[in-house]
């Protein structure tokens, strides 16, 4: 049996995010941090600059190609949203180099973007001002599976097969066969990456949101978004997906199960465009 800490300690390619992300975090966390400082850090990385301007000038943000410098992008979007976008792009660049055996990476990337979009849509529905942060959390939600297929691919595949054939919840099959589940591994990995503690709290509690402490609300959003992804992958209706979610989660979010269909439609509407932005080599099926 393996612990989440053991699996993360064995990772190689997923060991760290790009250094520029940490430098931006340091600038944001510093009392002397500034828009100018963040702009200079981003501008010093040509690849990141190109990706950021491509995203900001896409139809998704509505600036019609008018943002031609990093400093202008930072001024328009603000420091927190720049942080969130840089983190999302950093995570996607790490993902792009991973090819674990026995894992369908196209399916993984597509699901990650779907979860990110569903999480943001739910956050907006709940009136959260930090909806972009939930986009990043959604992108990270399934990270534990990427780690598991990198380190123990046979066991991870066996757990998925057991879940597919018997209907056993995947996380329960993972605990039984591996010793930990994807949520634990994902939380441990983002903690290893030194992301804000709320990220690890939300990811670790996405299967049981009530255990998320101060991040229980974010965990509940991820919990619902996961069901959107599950329904999309398995050709289920939104009604079937909503029925799997405990009533306590709907109460926690003050959200009606009937809204899940609209959330799913919004995520599906933007899926192809966001996949093209963050994973341009991936085709959406």
From TrEMBL:
Record's signal peptide: none
InterPro entries: HDOD (IPR013976), RNase_Y/CdgJ (IPR052340)
SUPFAM superfamilies per record: HD-domain/PDEase-like (SSF109604)
Gene3D superfamilies, A to Z: Hypothetical protein af1432
Domain called HDOD: residue spans: 14-209
Protein name: HDOD domain-containing protein
Record organism: Pseudothauera nasutitermitis
Taxonomic lineage: Bacteria, Pseudomonadati, Pseudomonadota, Betaproteobacteria, Rhodocyclales
């Amino acid at each position: 049996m393996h612990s989440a800490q053991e699996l993360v300690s064995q990772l190689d390619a997923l060991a760290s995010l790009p250094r520029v992300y940490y430098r931006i975090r340091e600038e944001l966390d510093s009392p002397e941090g500034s828009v100018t400082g963040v702009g200079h850090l981003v501008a010093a990385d040509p690849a990141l600059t190109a990706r950021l301007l491509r995203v900001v000038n896409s139809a998704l943000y509505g600036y019609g190609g008018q943002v031609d410098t990093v400093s202008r992008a930072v001024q328009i979007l603000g420091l927190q949203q720049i942080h969130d976008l840089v983190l999302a792009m950093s995570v996607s660049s790490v993902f792009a180099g991973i090819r674990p055996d026995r894992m369908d990476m196209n399916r993984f990337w597509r699901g990650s973007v779907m979860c990110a979009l569903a999480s943001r849509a739910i956050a907006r529905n709940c009136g959260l001002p930090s909806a972009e942060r939930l986009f990043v959390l959604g992108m990270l939600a399934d990270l534990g599976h990427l780690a598991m297929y990198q380190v123990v691919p046979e066991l991870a595949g066996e757990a998925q097969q057991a879940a597919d054939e018997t209907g056993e919840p995947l996380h329960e099959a993972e605990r039984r066969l591996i010793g930990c589940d994807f949520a634990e591994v994902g939380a441990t990995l983002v903690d290893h990456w030194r992301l804000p503690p709320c990220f690890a709290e939300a990811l670790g509690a996405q299967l049981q949101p009530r255990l998320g402490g101060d991040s229980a609300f974010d965990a509940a959003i991820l919990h619902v978004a996961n069901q959107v992804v599950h329904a999309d992958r398995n050709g289920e209706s939104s009604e079937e997906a909503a029925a799997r979610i405990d009533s306590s989660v709907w109460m926690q979010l003050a959200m009606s199960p009937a809204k899940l269909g609209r959330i799913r439609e919004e995520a599906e509407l933007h899926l192809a465009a966001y996949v093209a932005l963050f994973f341009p080599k991936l085709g959406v099926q």
